[in-house]
Amino acid sequence: MEHPNEQRKYWSIVNGVITFKPGEESRLSTGIWWGQPVEDFELRFSYKLIGPPDPGSHSFSAIYRGNNLDLYSLVLGQEGIAALKSQSRHLASVGERTVAKQGSEQRIMVGALADEKQVASWFHREDWNDVVILVEGSHHVFAMNGHTIMEFTDEDAVKRISKGDLGFSVWNRELPFTQVQLKNIRLKSLSEKSVP
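Above: the chain sequence. Below: its structure as tokens.
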């Protein structure tokens, strides 16, 4: 994994755990990235957030299929997986099974996987949480601690992204900042057997 040289001071690896620990800057946006773009894949990792994040001031996301025009962003918070977004669209919220249709800015909810209270009971606050992201073609599935908690199908052929960068992004707008930890990161390419 790679990160900009000027931001290296914020990241460390000790005993297999990657830690983002910010300094005293008033604003900070940073990330770590794979060296090669991804198409279809399975990503497994464990994460922990330490500190009092405010969704309006702090953000931790798994970014995938990112390019200069758009990306998919799985937003992770102190209460678990929060939402799937692109730069211009809100694609799914926790507990939803949704579809994006061409020509529509609004997602279509086609089913429910769990309610917010149930999902919250599966989340380990300020402890390790296991996440799986499975992306094949236009279908995206997200699981946390052994439970599928969000699914999304992108049927918008104009805005759908098929290939791009993969990484983790941290954004802090004001103090106190949130500390992020990652471990057991495993990426498996599924591109050779993917279907459109």
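The two ends are 28 Å apart (CA to CA).
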